[in-house]
């Protein structure tokens, strides 16, 4: 079951899905969008909890960006928490890799595909 994260502000806390509960179709759908791939790649190159939602240079508005993060949380790829007025992110690479070995490596270009 998705769990509620603790909220540090007035916003509703984001709901996080355990990667162990994610279906392959959900995982593949999450990584099929170019904007989400960009978000994943930027998070993979950043230290955990250092990137706020507004720090990504993606060609979508605030509502669409929020939707993309919701999809990534629902697929167990991203964890978010509120730090004051900012919502910061962490790529759940270790947990996601345990569920879908090699999938993130393919998305991130860490391995060659024949």
Automatic annotation (TrEMBL):
Keywords: DNA-binding
Presence of the UniProt keyword DNA-binding in the record: yes
Tree of life domain: Bacteria
SUPFAM superfamilies hit by this protein: Winged helix' DNA-binding domain (SSF46785)
Name of the molecule in the record: DNA-binding transcriptional ArsR family regulator
InterPro entries per UniProt: ArsR-like_HTH (IPR011991), HTH_ArsR_DNA-bd_dom (IPR001845), WH-like_DNA-bd_sf (IPR036388), WH_DNA-bd_sf (IPR036390)
The species this protein was found in: Streptomyces echinatus
Tagged with keyword DNA-binding: yes
HTH arsR-type domain span: 26-105
One annotated GO molecular function: DNA-binding transcription factor activity
